[in-house]
Amino acid sequence: MTKTKTYNRQNLLIVVLVILALSFILVGRLAYLMIVQSVYYGDLARQIHERERPIKAERGRIYDRNGIEIAGNKPVSTISVIHSQIKEPERVIKVLSEELGISEDEVRKRVEKVSSIERIKSNVDKELSDKIRAYKLDGVMVDEDYKRFYPFESLASKVIGFTGSDNQGIIGLEVKYDNYLQGLDGTILTLTTAKGVEIDDAAENRIEPVAGSNLYLSLDINIQKYAEQIATKLLESKEAKSVKMLVMNPQNGELYAMVNVPEFNLNDPYTLPEGTKNPLTEKERNDQLNTMWRNECISDTYEPGSSFKVVTATAALETKSVRLNDSFFCPGYKKVEDRMIRCHKTTGHGSETFVQGIQNSCNPVFMEVGARVGVDGMYKTFRQLGLFQKTGVDLPGEANSIMHNKKNIGAVELATISFGQSFQITPLQLMTAVSTVINGGNRITPHFGVKIESSDEGNIKELSYDTKENMISKDTSETMKQLLESVVAEGSGHNAFLEGFRIGGKTATSEKLPRSSNKYISSFIGFAPADHPKIIALVLIDEPTGIYYGGTIAAPAVKELFDNVLPYIGIKPDPSIREKTKETFGQNSNLILY
Amino acid sequence: MARTSREQRNRRNRSYSYYDYSLLFLTLFLVGFGLIMIYSTSSYSAQLVKNDSMYYLKRQGISAVLGIIAMLIVSKLNYKMLLGKMPILNIKPVTALYIVSILLQVYVLFFGVEINHAKRWISLGPLGTFQPSDLSKVATVLFVSYIVYMAPKKINNITGFFRVGVYISPLIVLIGKENMSTAIVICGIMVGICFVASKKKGYFFAAGSIIVAIGALYLMLGEGYRMERVQIWLDVENHEKGFQILQGLYAIASGGLTGTGLGRSMQKLGYVPEAQNDMIFSIICEELGLFGAVTVILLFALLIWRLFIIAINAPDLYGGLITSGILVHVALQVIINVAVVTNSIPSTGIPLPFISYGGTSIAVMLVEMGIALSVSNQIKYER
């Protein structure tokens, strides 16, 4: 038997020491990896473990001037299935198809599809989704979400606009203020296995979403409602194509209402009105939708007609081309170069002063006045009143005026321009110009947005708008207010007269092109109180049937509006006013105006 | 009558049989710890693939129980029986074991079951599979020790060393074709035993250089994937096939000082492929942190310390050499495994003894411990 010798033991000791040395090196290596490199590799590892799931930021709400919510959000859910986590496919199919009202085949197709996640239905009401959640089905996921909701449905639809499925504004204020309303989406970082299955009890890393800012409008829900009622009534009684109504504060440009009837339901913006022919091609459908969504008050131009005489008169006063008691004679027409241009009163107004010319809305008077002012004077005033540029309203899709090139204007063109024909402007441009005339010469920017309240800490940002002062002289403004008040008190606008209030205004009946079509736009622009206007309203009735005179059908609409709105905004009726105006503007009174 | 004579002998010698309980308990502890870690690392993929989260645990548990029974039996047998006579055949059991190993390695080359593109397993039908290379490691320990033991003086020079090499070469060639890492371990065991037995050590440097040169040639001329592994090792973060090792590094680094807690590994959820196998140490690091990892290494160090004590106290050279062989075997596997997992060397598939999943591996390891215990049991000491 050979015994273990000393050198054997020494050798083995060497082996063991080498092993220990190697072990120390490895422990060192481990310590390096697990302490020094821990953060580096740990981060890399987390990146592959974590999956980002976006959390939608709640979109900012929109409030009217009284703080009433007109665009909000309603919680809805998206129901999806995760194939790898489904344990009872048959039960899942049965429950989902019954609860969601989808055919079993449809649900089966998605449940049996081998994919990481399959959406079954989105925009499911919270109540229903809570019910589905209560089934506690494995592999069925209920994701909460928000859906834009408009409590007043069709109210001011073309102004407010709506959003798409991606929480992005499509038309109206929702587009204009999209950046403020959208907010910042957050993310949930969940841990997943290598197959991408989320681990239930793992701590989630959340980056909270930042809700969008709230938008406060100058729009007044009551004025808007009332204006819409009047407009709808007119639309029906006059079987008109559309009725537009704009209501604004002429001093600062805050829009109280903007009506385009027929409106559409903001909660269901893709359904065309009843009676649309079916089926439509995709293009036809899109065209019809765009027409339905179009805000004609700012996107469409028209020939303003007689209401534009306000501008002509202003130009005449500014250039001092006319004095109020200058006398004119209207034989029922005026010959300009080789053209006979007729007055609306074909028998003629006979002899009249400038004041009476305005009250009668006499075309020959204004052709004469326009000729006296001249193209330069007219265009200078147009420019001062902002008729060559967009108003800058905070709505998308605003159109600009279509004006004659100055050098192409001959006597005939000048004559027609003088009473509001042969060029086109938007209704809002007209209202802005008239506001400038009656507010003392300040060209304001019409707008809806007043302030923006951010969701964090409620920081409020007041929105400011451009005002160009002294566009016309104060004197001209004062005179124009009185002249327009006299139109309502004594002239063609008498149907807008409201007992106890001082109202100014101008009627218009525009013949649509081609003239032979016999289609009209009847309109009236009115403001009150006449001496210090706090509200201005413009109503346009597009293609009314039957009587189409602005003074007959449009003026009463403004009267009806003012009857309710003036007390609402705090203007009290004064019974003595009638007498006063009679004194001032009566046919036989000696009107003393500058 | 027999009893009295034994009592008399005992009284005359006044000596008792030693039994290394420390080694036994270290082994049992490592096996138990291994089973916990296997459950922790494999339950997720077992549930996913086999629909039974205990699948791997159960299989490993059966192997471990069988291995422990075998270990206890072997530990009570006298290891010198290996050099005794066998009935009928006129060869020693140790030689027979060696020949059986070679035959099994030949068999596996032709009829082996291929798992993960490697033909290393023999199918045992319903009992599962058997990996003969694990058996070959024990055979190597026992057979090399036997050759050296028969002529201990010859090993003092290089020709004696080569003589051993020639005896072992058939096994190395057969295994090396399919499983280089096991071939390396077998070479290591052989060199280790010879080193312990040799009076002169100078030639080991020469022999070592030759082995390194052969290894390098083998790398370059052998199958392409081996060179690729070197490239992965050098640039694990960017190499497209560095995925497994990189995921292991993620796991280790995620552990930090104290780990994520038992069962809380993220990387075992499919990121580290087959986390219960060779990569199990990375998950131990992730779940138990640096403290846990160092503790595991310390347990192995203690185990090696016990083997060292047994080897130097062995009653004869053969017992000392086989214990040394076992010591080298365990140490090599632990060091290579940890080195691979930490990307300290190019990757090669070596399981972590007692802990990695693998029925044959744990059973054979336990039998080896049984042999070491058997050697310890032959140590006589006086009270």
From TrEMBL, chain A:
Q: Where in the cell is it found?
A: Membrane
**Tree of life domain:** Bacteria
User: According to its UniProt record, where is this protein mainly located?
Assistant: membrane
Keyword list (alphabetical) reads: Membrane, Transferase, Transmembrane, Transmembrane helix
Q: Which GO terms describe its molecular function?
A: penicillin binding; transferase activity
Penicillin-binding protein dimerisation domain residues: 55-199
UniProt-listed Pfam families: PBP_dimer, Transpeptidase
Ranges in a coiled coil:
none
What processes in GO biological process is this protein linked to?
Answer: cell wall organization
Q: Where does it sit, as one GO cellular component term? A: plasma membrane
Which ranges does the record mark as transmembrane? Answer: 12-35
Residues of the Penicillin-binding protein transpeptidase domain: 246-562
The UniProt entry, under SUPFAM superfamilies, shows: beta-lactamase/transpeptidase-like (SSF56601), Penicillin binding protein dimerisation domain (SSF56519)
Listed InterPro entries: Beta-lactam/transpept, Beta-lactam/transpept-like, PBP_dimer, PBP_dimer_sf, PCN-bd_Tpept
Q: Describe the family membership recorded for this protein in Swiss-Prot or TrEMBL.
A: Belongs to the transpeptidase family.
- Identify the PANTHER family for this entry: PEPTIDOGLYCAN D,D-TRANSPEPTIDASE, PEPTIDOGLYCAN D,D-TRANSPEPTIDASE FTSI
Q: By what name is this protein known?
A: Peptidoglycan glycosyltransferase
Q: In the record, what lineage is assigned to the organism producing the protein?
A: Bacteria, Bacillati, Bacillota, Clostridia, Lachnospirales
UniProtKB/TrEMBL annotation, chain B:
> Pfam families, per this entry?
FTSW_RODA_SPOVE (PF01098)
Molecular functions (GO terms): lipid-linked peptidoglycan transporter activity; peptidoglycan glycosyltransferase activity
User: Which parts pass through the membrane?
Assistant: 21-41, 61-79, 91-115, 135-151, 158-175, 181-198, 203-221, 279-305, 317-342, 354-375
Q: Which UniProt keywords apply?
A: Cell cycle, Cell division, Cell shape, Glycosyltransferase, Membrane, Peptidoglycan synthesis, Transferase, Transmembrane, Transmembrane helix
Q: Where does the record say this protein resides?
A: Membrane
The record's EC number reads: 2.4.99.28
User: Taking the first listed entry, what is the main subcellular location of this protein, grouped into a coarse class?
Assistant: membrane
In what way does this protein cross or attach to the membrane?
Multi-pass membrane protein
Per the UniProt entry, what are the Gene Ontology biological process annotations, in alphabetical order? cell division; peptidoglycan biosynthetic process; regulation of cell shape
The record lists the catalysed reaction(s) as:
[GlcNAc-(1->4)-Mur2Ac(oyl-L-Ala-gamma-D-Glu-L-Lys-D-Ala-D-Ala)](n)-di-trans,octa-cis-undecaprenyl diphosphate + beta-D-GlcNAc-(1->4)-Mur2Ac(oyl-L-Ala-gamma-D-Glu-L-Lys-D-Ala-D-Ala)-di-trans,octa-cis-undecaprenyl diphosphate = [GlcNAc-(1->4)-Mur2Ac(oyl-L-Ala-gamma-D-Glu-L-Lys-D-Ala-D-Ala)](n+1)-di-trans,octa-cis-undecaprenyl diphosphate + di-trans,octa-cis-undecaprenyl diphosphate + H(+)
Root EC class? transferase
Q: What's an example GO cellular component term for this entry?
A: plasma membrane
Q: What does this protein do?
A: Peptidoglycan polymerase that is essential for cell division.
Q: Which PANTHER family match?
A: CELL CYCLE PROTEIN (PTHR30474), PEPTIDOGLYCAN GLYCOSYLTRANSFERASE FTSW-RELATED (PTHR30474:SF2)
Task: Name the family the entry cites.
Answer: Belongs to the SEDS family. FtsW subfamily.
This chain's protein is named Probable peptidoglycan glycosyltransferase FtsW
The organism's lineage is:
Bacteria, Bacillati, Bacillota, Clostridia, Lachnospirales
